[in-house]
Design brief:
The complex is a heterodimer. Chain A is of the alpha+beta class. Chain A contains one helix and ten strands, in the order H-E-E-E-E-E-E-E-E-E-E. Chain A is globular and about 55 Å long. The two termini of chain A are 17 Å apart. By secondary structure, chain B is of the alpha/beta class. Helix content of chain B is 29%, strand content 17%. Chain B has 26 helices and 30 strands. In chain B, strand 1 and strand 2 form a beta hairpin. The longest helix of chain B has 21 residues. The two termini of chain B are 26 Å apart. Chains A and B meet through strand 5 and strand 8 of A and helix 8 and helix 25 of B.
Amino acid sequence: MRCRKMAEIGRRQFLRGGALATAGAAAVAVSGPEARAAVAPARVAYPANRLANIADLTVNEPLDVAYPDDDAPGVLLKLGHPVEGGVGPEGDVVGFSTICPHKGYPLFYNAEDRTLNCPGHFSRFDPEAGGQQVWGQATQNLPQYVLRVDDDGEIHAEGVDELLYGRLSNVL
Amino acid sequence: MAYKRQIDRLPIIPADAKKHNVTCHYCIVGCGYHAYTWPINKQGGTAPEENAFGVDLSEQQGAETEAWYAPSMYSIVKQDGKDVHLVIKPDQGCSVNSGLGSIRGARMAENRRSDVLGTQQQRLTEPMVWRYGTWQPTSWEDALDLVARVTARVIDDGDEDDLYVSMFDHGGSAGGYENTWGTGKLYFDSMKVKNCRIHNRPAYNSEVHSTRDMGIGELNYCYEDYQLTDTIFMVGANSLETQTNLFLNHMVPGVRGDTLAKKEAELPGELHAPARVVVVDPRRTVTVNAFEEVAGKENVLHLAINSGTDLALFNALFTHIADQGWVDAEFIAASTFQDGVAQPQDEQHPAALGSFEAARAACRMSLADAAAICGVSEADIAKAAEWIAMPKEGGARRRCVFPYEKGIIWGNDNYRTIGALVNLGLATGNIGRPGGGVVRLGGHQEGYMRPSDAHVGRPAPYLDRLIIGGGGKVHHIWANDHYKTTLNASEFKRVYNRRTNMVKEAMDARAGATREELVDAIVAAIEAGGLFSVNVDIVHTQIGQQAHVILPAVESGEMNLTSMNGERRMRLVEKYMDGPGSAKPDCLIAAGLAQALERVLREEGRDAYADRFKGYDWASEEDAFMDGYHANTGQIVTYDRLRAMGNNGVQEPVIGYEDGKLIGVKRLYADGKFDRHGREDKKALFCCGAWRGLQAPGKAAQKAGFRFLVNNGRSNINWQNWFLDKDNDFVADRYPYPFLEIHPDDMADLGLAAGDLVEVYNDVGATQAMAYPVETARRGETFMLFGAPSGTQGNVINAGTNELILPNYKQTWADIRKISDAPATVKHLSFKSKEYRMG
């Protein structure tokens, strides 16, 4: 629920910005008093979403999550040893999008060799190496979450490092 | 850190963006794309009416959507001198790829030179001349004048043998019909240069002489045949990595059974099932893995033969199939030569050619003998024969398509091995028919249109060897990088460096001299054994480091360019951006060089010879196309007509133009008449080539003397010779060094950990690679990535070729030693298996 709520906030902010810009343009057209321009930030504003608690995670068992909204499935993984982008007391917790950046198929976790695999076109990604595509068709490595763990062990996602498949803005 | 672009948003293509037809300029498959461009100060919106897709982009799009593009598909480039946004994305309407993008083609936009985004700054922008101890940028006029004056000193009417030329013959990239014609007209019409070679081999020759001599052009089917066939018999090819979307969009549906309804509709009256697969390859590849995933292991037979023993396998299959009577007797009687030997073995023909029975006698090989030679079981060979040719339930002929590529083209005994494979196709009636074909899969696209090369002769001169032996005075190089992609590269580089440095030193010694004095100094150095090197390319290559004049070319998309793919599908890539600086299409560079030669020769009073260099008054690449392709192929195809055919183009040969459409040919030889050999009877010939062990000089001794097979080839992520990818962050991040796949137990023996830098060395040279553990590799058999800038695999390939100067890259043996622990750029890499594992 919380994810959806945060996403809605994000969407409202986006629409408000757009509406202001339109009003500004209209105001100029009728030579009225100069409207105050809405300055769009250079980067999208990522929501800070709680995804899980450290206590929810077991080594090498994927936990399905979504970020930055419910339409963007992902996974949290506790890998048992420090890895690239890892957070938590052991630096071993990572989060990734699970939509293949090639053609948008869902990725599946192979616990045996700890890879995310695409049944569409055989691509595979290594969550122990920053989501590097081990082999495959995608032209980018797997989008990884920027994670933060607070004092209570709550895991928050606060950003993504590649464009997510199926959207031209990571935050819709 | 794995490379990440940190891009969270992309500009949206507006509804009124310009849309250009684009065929991917990399591999033979030639996937369709569209290039969208729009002004830098505009952008589309998320509302359906505000974007090119007409959909609501404020929502998540589903799998396989047309309405998404990756950051690698975006750039900002110059168009008519202005900065514009550029998106190059796969075309869902193209029958070749149906919207799929490969990891290579879907990075075309990112691999454009962008002065705004800073990509591909390695692209050459201006001509350069070796001056004052380095390369100095200069004008076209100045650079071409120097090339023409030096060249004119070493050539004469009827004697152009001291001018050596290395020139691409392919389509795509900077090749294509326009550019092969421009260079071909210069060297084969205005001149008769015989000492020349092609981009990937040391002579000017066919890679598939035998199939042509047997009457069968090597691209005789259409891609749909994979959807119609009963069996795919794939040899020496790794199509998932090297013809990716042919594999995904045509082979997979045929093997998975998606096309059963199509089979029933198009081929009624016979039983149909999902296609089965035989893969002949010493190495287990991701192609084998993916076939198994799609078809089930029981429907995939991987014949992991000993390296270089394909001929023994094919001859045993041919023998067994003939002995079982699983041949198409009617086809053999109607379409093949009947009376013994038609072409005896001689210097031009490494095997005799003739009738089915003649070949059967010459090629006889028992299953037991083949099993011993090839290292696979008799039962598996018999099973392969059944899958190829045993009549289907109900008695219908089994359909089989036989794709092959570098595993045998650059493998042992090229002529006989390819001939033996074509024998299988002929014997089973699988050429010119739906679900059939004996075809090379291909590397680049094709785009060959040149005057006759008959004067080159056969066997063609072994150009690299001639250069090593001191031959040649002036060397013109068109998009060849021998340093990265030739065989015997260690010796070649040593000699080439020495000979070209002699000229550089002579030029340095005459700094400030007049043009006439400089040319005299260069010619004196040449006469003393030096070599004057002119390099035409889009980037500063490794061999280009030794050039004296460098001329910058444009490539596909920076010019209009026509090529054809592996099913002979011809398309026009429309120019969608400016070339860098003053770079030009190769055809116009060739024209400029011809005009400069004419002027210099006339100045020197050699008027009759000068007249030979007329006919290059082309204002554009379209003029070169009309002068070459159009004029020499029935005057049917024009840019306008081809543009109207879009990304589906037309399959060559183009035989007509009706109702606003070009008319092509879906399959060659559908009438059972074979003409590639030029025989008037139009009968195909069988190849009478018996197994004769490792054929090329030095191979057997190398095998005996060194511990590891160093098999070699390409990988999915990079285009084969890395020309743009060496400057692509995503690719360079994954493979900063070429990988050497090796069994973990062999690594343990050598004291290696994953990523360690190793030296691969043997009797002819040495190179470097990073160790990549592969559990499915066979002990003592490694596989090294070819063509990498940070470790030239060709350094350890010996000079041995077949009788017709076809290089033998695949059969190479060497020892391996550790150079160092994994370098810093390697430490973050994943070394997990490349095989898909659902888990």
